[in-house]
Amino acid sequence: MFAMFSAISIILGFTPLGIIPIPPVSATIIHIPVIIVAILEGPLMGALMGLVFGIISFATAIMRPTVISFIAYNPLVSIAPRILIGLVAYYVYKLFPGKKESLKIGASAALGTLMNTVGFLGMGYIIYGNKIAEALGRDPSTIGKWVLGIGVSHCWLEMLVAIVITIPIVFAGKKIRR
Question: What domains, with CATH codes, occur in the chain?
Answer without folding.
Answer: 2-167 (1.10.1760.20)
